[in-house]
Fold this sequence. Notes:
Elements (H helix, E strand, L loop, with lengths): L2 E5 L3 H12 L3 E6 L5 H9 L3 E4 L4 H4 L4 E4 L8 H8 L4 E2 L1 H6 L5 E6 L4 H14 L4 E5 L5 H7 L4 E5 L2 H5 L8 E4 L14 H9 L10 E5 L3 H9 L5 E5 L8 E5 L2 E6 L2 E6 L8 H16 L4 H10 L8 E6 L2 E5 L6 H10 L4 E5 L12 H7 E7 L4 H7 L5 E5 L2 H11 L5 E4 L12 H14 L1
Parallel strand pairs: 1-2, 1-4, 2-3, 4-5, 6-8, 6-9, 7-8, 9-10, 10-11, 16-20, 17-18, 17-20, 18-19
Antiparallel strand pairs: 12-13, 13-14, 15-16
Helix pairs in contact: 1-7, 6-11, 6-12, 16-17
Amino acid sequence: MKRLVVLGGGESGVGTAILGKKEGYQVFVSDKGEIQPKYKEVLEHFEIEWESGKHSGDRVFQADVVMKSPGIPDRVPLVKQLKEKGIPVISEMEFASQFSEATVIGITGSNGKTTTTMLTHHLLKNGRLNVGLAGNIGDSYAKMVAEKDFDLYALEISSFQLDGIQQFKPHIAILTNITPDHLDRYDNQFEKYVASKFRITMNQTENDFFIYDADDPVIAEGLKKFPIQSKLVPFSIKQKLETGAWIEDNKIIIEIEHKTLEMSTDILALEGQHNLKNTMAASLAALLVNVRKETIRQSIQTFQGVPHRLEKVLKINHVEYINDSKATNVNATYYALDGIKKPIVWIVGGVDKGNDYSELMPLVREKVKAIICLGMDNTRIKDAFGNVIELMVETYSMQEAVKVAYKIAERGDSVLLSPSCASFDLFENYEDRGNQFKEEIKRL
């Protein structure tokens, strides 16, 4: 009986454990931290052995294969030792895909991947296809394969999950964009992060498709550098293309595999240029799996977007409060600041992943009237914007941040939570941060 050791007892780990058990592996789950009660219950239910608060080397090193949760860096001594011993360390994507015949649409990128994944799922589901939504969003892919294998999957895939693939191959790969993010996990070398993103194409053949942003200079460089076998499907909002998706006379034009689709940009439910791109990417994928044109048009008009991504919460005293807690890097915040036309009171901060704030400077000078820092250590933000913004306040809880924003904001302003940083210093995750923001606004 093959031995599977799962490192990390969260959504990804527990899903992999369930699938491993179903496929006849002897499974052991090991988490250095505390496993949440809800996951312990699931492991007990499936009679899967687990440990919490430590890694027992003797048990872990007996593995035939190890699935490492995406939150665990490669540089952890235990992971290095496993690799030295020649024990394969793979990701959930790699493990689960071995046991499913489904067509996979894999979506990665520094920003826009959640919106694009959810929109792709929305289009396919409305097209009456039997499609699952999983990966870095919502449910574990492995658990879905174990319990209810779908015909197709829209999978949101992080660079960490791509680092642990060997044979995994999406039929349609989407790369939304590449901007510096998570550089702390890539030895602060941007090129390592770029290489990680391009791994989504590494096993594709000429029968597969690679949908990408033709306006992104980093992707353009990557196309020259990495050998890609699949059919290239670009999208652009700046140039007319021969094939793929582009804009002409306020219309999105899509031409792919002898199919043509035109739709007015006015019908999009989501605002902003980045959402034009997300819409193009998802529509291309939907056409490639034969969703009807009319279904695509209608579905794009009904898509509500992603929670915690430029989510309009409330208007109080003619001040709009916007929750963009999902903006965990500088580029995501750039879209937020760029899209808001009113003066902004900006709540920013958290765990800085090696951010370079300089690209935000023109927007901050033009639009931001006050900055509220929300983090344990706000030095980088103060250094970046201290000379530009007269009013800067440090806060250490969401309640405090929202109260300060309420005092500062005047009629016609927007209060924007767009942290540019990870949330782990003060919150469980970006959802917790966004939910606390919404709760505090309701209390005002």
